[in-house]
Specification:
951 residues; alpha+beta; three-stranded antiparallel sheet; 41 strands; 47% strand; extended
């Protein structure tokens, strides 16, 4: 017995030692294999920060746990994390680890996973990361090629607290599922088994083309199904699906063969309560749904039948019927009643164009306001055939009596609509308006809306929109937002192709306002700090890129008496605004601003979603300098001295720049030039003037008056280049040139001609010392009545460094910059020349091709005419020859004299036939010459037009 316990103790010790040592023995091998297999099989970066191995946790299997597992894309998806998993647990068969050929995984558990599935507009998906399979040159004993070292023998899959986002730009679909839990049980090692699944999504949000169809919806699926794993056939048994409060059940099967999925499913509701159906409406389900009083019946069923793959879809159908329904919130006085709905969506053969949407009836009364809607859509892809009618009168003040609106302070007004439309979209495209019926109107009266979330009250006194097949007629719009009024009228063309086929929407509108404050529209989220701000304090608004739609072609004729944007107040604003091809073109936009007048021509465009650029031609007349510096950051940044300058200026400027995400200029991209003019200006106490006064020992430079300024400038590589210009400071002639960079660095050369009588004793002393020092170095300077002084002004805007110098070195930085700009311009010109030459060759090639075609067609016509003429001439000569031969034969029969006479007649006949044939040929030749001449002229004109186009 003692020996037995001794042996048992030894066995236990060995097991413990193995349990401790085995994970470390095989740890590196397993982890290395996992990473190697994973990264070798995908075009992505797979990594994890921590792992653990255990024998006892799931004995007799190995337990492998990876922490912070990440899968990050490459190339265009390099900034996207396809998956981030906090923990993934795998159970591996112990014997397979010892064997080392295949690692058998029997269970998987995933915790706190976030999966981001993204599809670009070009339909490329970020999960398509599998590398092309490399086929081995030799087969193993079983004949398989390139077999993996991992083998799935799953019995259980668990997913907890996970999230999936599906963002498909090609289809306009966005889906977000949060709080995912999933359990799958079953013996996947057998050919036939029963699988048990229990899945839940706590919050599911679905958007399509920007419209939210599901919002934080609860999805639950509990199902058992038989699985023929050998043949990939799955048959539903007991199951139940839940969407919010709607319970569904399924029958049928799913079979998968190669790339095909064979579906044979039917479904229906487990509860026929209208309340269950009502839970699908996000706005209703989120508002005290459990306490809502309802009545009415629901019938809902459907099917999916057929093959699904990349090239085909199964047939499907869904029927929804609601009858004698109502709902009422317990704390509100009135119900929404008389709800009735009959709707069918069917597709008999899986072809998308054979889908039929038929809402034959949809009626409801909101506090006594009836609304009726009918809609039928056929052939939605090839040529949408629509038949619909919307009719109703809605008193918005009664909506608060049927639906809780605690977050809305005020809602009033009337919506009156009666719109009917019937016909095929192709009739609209062909402008065959007689075969498309679309008439009616939408009228809005005294609409008033106010909530705590919206900064200002929204009021529409009246609006009327009339419908016709070709256009929408905005008869009138009279509205007010806060203190801003807005009126508009005009026509919008092509609205039906825009709605159904996303084609271009065109419009021509006239708008006007007495007072329009854009800040009221932009500052929707005003903080408590902002609302308590003093009236004279500047208030900042967060700006962001405003993307211009691609399929909009609008012309807006606008007149605003007062327009406020950011910290600018503009008056008498008028002009034309064109919106087209993701660009806003401003044409002769005029306004009073900063005590002057501004005229703008140019464009604002958004070539990409997160990129914007401006290309403006500005004509500024008599702007106040200090107000301009406070208003425009660009002037404040490049010309900070303007904040200390009193006076007015005029300027003509061309400016191009990219804008950042906050709508501010990207200074390094700014290009352009202009001319700046001013009359008398006063500059008081700037950093640069103080430093100049200190350098020259002349306090009068701390406050200077400039009688007149006329200078030219340009933007190059993030620098404002001021070209040399002359001006006068009091009685002192001056010349200035140099630059300011967007990093606030400066480099200027100021040349002064200072009369000696303007200098004090200290200044004269400084100059005498400078002359003495210069002469010691070999110069031969002397001072006259006028002193030439050069001042180099460098450093930064906030800390300028002024150095006086009697030499005239100039500032080579500007010349170098110009030289660089000239070289770059030359390079661009050469590139343009190459492009122009290439385009010219293409134009000439096409012109020669077209000209040759004209000549060839003319030659073909000529050949046909000549062929016909020769054939006719030959036939005429042949007929004459026969007659001549007959005459000669008759003459021989009647003697020698008759023979001679007959021969003369025959010769004459032949000659006349020859002349006639020759005439026919000549006539045809004249006709063909005219044809060829006309063709040559046409060909020459084509070539000349091409040359003009090239020029």
């Amino acid at each position: 017995m003692k020996k037995f316990f001794k042996i048992l103790a030894i066995i236990i010790i060995i097991i413990v030692l193995l349990g401790i040592s085995l994970p470390f023995i095989f740890q590196d091998k397993i982890i290395e294999k996992v990473k190697e297999e994973a990264n070798n099989s995908v075009n992505a970066k797979i990594d994890f920060t921590d792992f653990s191995l255990s024998l006892f946790r799931n004995f007799p299997n190995f337990s492998l746990e990876l922490n912070d597992l990440s899968i990050v894309g490459i190339n265009e998806f390099k900034s996207d994390t396809l998956a981030q998993i906090n923990s993934i647990f795998l159970s591996l068969d112990l014997l397979s680890v010892f064997n080392g050929d295949e690692y058998e995984i029997s269970s998987i558990k995933i915790e706190d996973a976030k999966v981001y599935l993204k599809v670009l507009e070009n339909e490329k998906a970020n999960w398509d990361i599998e590398k092309p399979e490399i086929v081995s040159n030799s087969e193993d004993e079983t004949g398989s090629e390139g077999s993996s070292s991992f083998k799935l023998l799953l019995k259980e899959v668990l997913i907890n607290r996970s999230e999936v986002i599906y963002d498909d730009a090609s289809l306009g679909v966005y889906l977000k599922a949060k709080g995912i839990t999933h359990r799958l049980n079953g013996n996947l090692t057998e050919d036939f088994t029963t699988l048990h699944t229990n899945s839940k999504i706590n919050q599911l949000t679905l958007k399509y083309d920007g419209i939210k169809y599901l919002n934080n919806t609860v999805i639950i699926l509990m199902a058992n199904f038989d699985a023929d794993l050998k043949n990939s056939i799955y048959t539903f048994k007991k199951n139940q699906a839940q969407i919010n409060d709607l319970f569904l059940s399924f029958d049928g099967s799913v079979a998968m063969t190669d790339d095909d999925i064979n579906l044979l499913l039917t479904f229906g509701v487990s509860k026929n309560s209208f309340k269950s159906f009502l839970s699908l409406i996000p706005a209703v389900y989120s508002k005290d749904f459990a306490s809502i009083e309802t009545k009415g019946n629901l019938a809902l069923d459907g099917y999916v039948k057929g093959i699904y793959n990349d090239n085909s879809m199964p047939s499907f159908g869904i029927n929804i019927a609601v009858k004698d329904a109502m709902f009422k919130y317990p704390d509100l006085p009135k119900p929404v009643n008389n709800i009735a709905l009959n709707a069918k969506i069917t597709n008999k053969n899986g072809e998308p164009d054979n889908t039929v949407i038929d809402v034959s009836k949809f009626h409801f009364d909101i506090a006594g306001n009836p609304v009726d809607i009918k809609l039928k859509v056929k052939t939605p892809e090839s040529d949408p055939d629509i038949d619909g009618h919307i009719k109703g009168t809605l008193d918005l003040s009664s909506v608060k009596e049927v639906y809780p609106m605690d977050d809305i302070d005020e809602l009033k007004g009337f919506f009156i609509t009666d719109i009917q439309f019937k016909g095929k979209l192709s009739s609209i495209e062909k402008e065959d308006y007689e075969n498309f019926n679309a008439f009616g109107s939408l009228i809005v009266k005294n609409f008033n809306y106010k909530t705590p979330e919206v900064a200002k009250n929204i009021l529409i006194r009246n609006a009327q929109l009339n419908f016709s097949p070709a256009y929408l007629d905005l008869v009138s719009l009279n509205s007010r937002i806060g203190n801003s009024d807005f009126k508009a009228n005009g026509k919008i063309n092509g609205y039906l192709p825009y709605i159904f086929q996303n084609k271009c929407l065109k419009g021509n509108l006239t708008s006007s306002s007495i007072n329009f404050d854009l800040n009221e529209l932009m500052a929707e989220d005003i903080s408590e700090e902002a609302t308590t701000q003093k009236p004279n304090e500047e208030q900042e608004y967060e700006l962001s890129i405003i993307e211009i739609p691609e399929n909009i072609d609008f012309v807006l004729h606008s007149e605003f008496k007062k327009l406020i944007y950011d910290n600018m107040e503009m008056t008498d604003v008028s002009g034309i605004i064109e919106i087209k091809n993701k660009k806003v073109n401003l044409k002769n936009l005029k306004m009073n601003l900063l005590d002057g007048r501004l005229t703008v021509n140019g464009s604002y465009s958004t070539p990409k979603t997160d990129e914007a650029e401006i290309d403006f031609n500005l004509n500024i007349n008599e702007f106040d300098i200090q107000k301009t510096a406070k208003t425009f950051l660009t002037m404040k940044k490049f010309v900070p001295i303007a904040e200390r300058t009193q006076g007015k200026f005029s300027c003509k400027m061309e400016l191009f720049s990219k804008l950042d995400k906050e709508m501010m200029p990207v200074y390094s991209t700014m290009t352009g030039d202009g001319n700046f003019k001013s009359s008398k200006i006063v500059i008081d106490g700037s950093n640069s003037l103080n430093k100049i006064a200190e350098a020259l020992k002349m306090d009068k430079f701390k406050n200077i008056t400039i009688d007149k300024t006329d200078l030219s400038f340009e933007f190059i590589e993030g620098k404002l280049i001021v070209k040399p210009f002359d001006f006068k400071i009091n009685k002192i002639n001056a010349n200035l040139k140099g630059w300011t960079s967007f990093e606030q660095n400066i480099d200027y050369l100021l040349k002064l001609k200072i009369p000696r009588n303007e200098l004090g004793s200290k200044a004269n002393s400084v100059l005498n010392n400078l002359v003495s020092e210069a002469n010691k170095k070999g110069a031969n300077f002397s001072l006259g009545d006028i002193i030439d002084v050069n001042l180099k002004i460098k450093g930064t805007v906030t800390n300028p460094k002024v150095t006086p110098d009697l030499s005239d070195q100039g500032n080579n930085a500007i010349d170098d910059l110009k030289k660089k700009a000239a070289e770059e311009l030359k390079k661009k010109k050469e590139e343009l020349k190459k492009l122009a030459k290439k385009e010219a060759e293409r134009i000439l090639k096409e012109a020669n091709k077209e000209a040759d075609k004209v000549i060839k067609e003319a030659q073909k016509q000529v050949d046909e005419i000549m062929k016909t003429a020769r054939k006719t001439a030959d036939r005429a000569k042949a007929e004459a020859g026969k007659q001549a031969d007959k005459l000669e034969a008759e003459g021989k029969k009647n003697g020698f004299i008759a023979e001679i006479a007959a021969k003369k007649v025959a010769d004459k006949l032949r000659k006349e036939a020859e002349n006639t044939a020759s005439g026919m040929i000549n006539e045809a030749k004249k006709q063909t010459d005219k044809i060829m001449e006309k063709a040559r002229r046409k060909a020459e004109k084509i070539k000349q037009d091409a040359q003009k186009k090239i020029k």
